[in-house]
Each structure stands twice: as structure tokens, then as C-alpha cells.
Amino acid sequence: MKKENSMLNGKILFSIVIFALPLLGSSIVQQLYNTADLLFVSNCAGKTAAAAVGASGLIFTCLIGVCTGLSVGVNILVARAVGEDKPDYAKYVSQTAVIISIVTGILLSVIGLAAAKPVLRLMQTPETILPEALVYLRTYLCSMPFMVIYNMGSSVLRGYGNSKTPFLILVAGGCANVCADFVFVSVFQWGVFGAALATLICQGISSTLILITLFCGKDGVCVAGNWKMPDGRILRKIMVLSVPVAVQAIVVTLSNIIVQSYINSYGEDTIAAFAAYFRIECFIYLPLVAIGQAMTTFVGQNAGAGNYQRIKKGATSSACLCAVLALSLIHI
Fold this sequence. Notes:
The protein is 83% helix and 0% strand. The longest helix is centred in the C-terminal third of the chain and has 38 residues, at 268-305. It is mostly helical. The chain has helices at residues 12-44, 47-55, 57-83, 87-122, 130-141, 144-159, 164-187, 191-216, 232-264, 268-305, 308-330. The chain has one domain.
């Protein structure tokens, strides 16, 4: 089985860092989707519109966390199959991931659309910005199937040792998002709806590109042909590995949502200011998240190959690196 960036040999810390850099880039670009919306809306549609976008920022952070968490199990199973040199099993898991992503994305979108207004009210969103916040949130929620497909597809590619292709795809989507924001918000003056529509379109582009990559067979990754019904055992393994991570992301974000609820009671100026601050905070902890994501693939591949001593060394090296990064970022 061809592995573009195998974690099974070579310098441990170097392999982890090189693999983590595209993951960091992907996380930054994904966060920039909402940040770009906020920048264009604040400059072209005014303070109220910016507050409407910012009011739901934490909800999107939670959704991204859920999507990432749900894809962890897929990444681990594919990486382990790569380490064990079981290409057929890796392909079966990848096909299952595609099916799960479509079903899960549609469910999250439907549930989100139904719960959007109650959640915004629960967060004490001011009545002055509630209509626009609801328009932005509901339009954005329509992109959930695309977001889940992209994250699942990225996890499959990372399991094979390829973290660069998902990054390049997301960069293409991010550039398209900025261009669409300019057209819809600056030129057409569609305000918060235009910003959310731009994100919806660009999420669609990213998910389409990731599916094309999975189906075309590049770098040994191919989900085309010989499709089978998902195996219940594989589904259980994916859920057992993924659900705890997704729940953790929800719990962490819920604390911030509670803070956001109190901030919303202070009015539009405070909401807009907090939205700007939170964008900066997100970028600070992303390097640590990238190292953790890289370790998922590292451990998966080496566990499959039985390289447990290499896993221990990798865990120690990555923990030390995260400690250094954390201490450095504190003083930024």
C-alpha cells in the first residue's frame, strides 16, 4: 500500500511536525471562513450585522468540533489498516465513512435548522439582531452535509498519511469564500445572508473536491467500486472512538456558549467586540490541536504495525513540543 507520508519510520518529531503543519493550515483556513464573513459584514453592513454574525460564532465552533470529533474514529481505523498493510479493509472503512458523513450531515442540518431560533433565544441574543442572526445561522447550517463530508474525507486521507491534499482543498475553498464574500456582501449588498451563502457555496466546493480525490484513486486512496453495506462492527468501532471526542468538543464549547449568553445581554457593541476577540483566541490554540490530530494518525499507523516503542517516544516528544508551544503562545 502506498503511503505518501508514512509515520512508520524516520525521525519521530520531524514526521509529526511535517504532518501537523498542513493540519494547522487547514484549521486556520476553516476558522477564517467565519472570520472573513465577520470582516466583510462589519465593513459593509455595519455594527448590527457584525453582531448578528458574531452572535452565532460559538455555535459554529461547536459544530466544527463535532465534525472533527466524529471523524476521529475513521482516521484511527484507516491509519491502523495502513500500518497493518490491509488495503481492502482501509477501503471498506473509507466507503463507510462516506456513507456516515452524508447521513450525519443531513441529520445535523435538519436538527440545527429546527433548533436555531430556540438556541439563539437561549443565548439571550438581543431582539435587535435576532432576525439577521437567524438568517445567518440557518443559511450556514445548510452547509453541514458539506462540512461533515469534507472532515470525514480529510480523515480518510490523513489515515493514509496525506495531510497536504485536504489543506490545499481547503485553501481553494477559503479563497473562493473571500471572493464570494466580496461579490455577495460588498457588491450585491446582501449583508449577513450573502456572507452565509458564500460559506455555503465554498463548503460545497471543498466537499466536492475531497470526494473527487477519494474516488479518483490518488496516492492509493480509492473508494470507487465494490461498494458494500456498512458493517455494524465497523460502525460501532467508529462510534466508540469518535463519540467521546465529539462530546468533549461540545462540553468545552458549552462553557464558552454560557459566557456568550451573558455577553449577549450587554448589547451589540459587546457582542461584536467579543466576536473579534474569540477569533483571535481560536488561532492561538490551533497549533496544539494540530499536534494532537497528527498524533492520532501516528499512533494509528504504528499500532497497526506493532511499533509500540515508537508510539511511546512519539507521545513524549509531542507532549514536550505542546508544552513549549503553550508557554510560547501565552506570551504573545
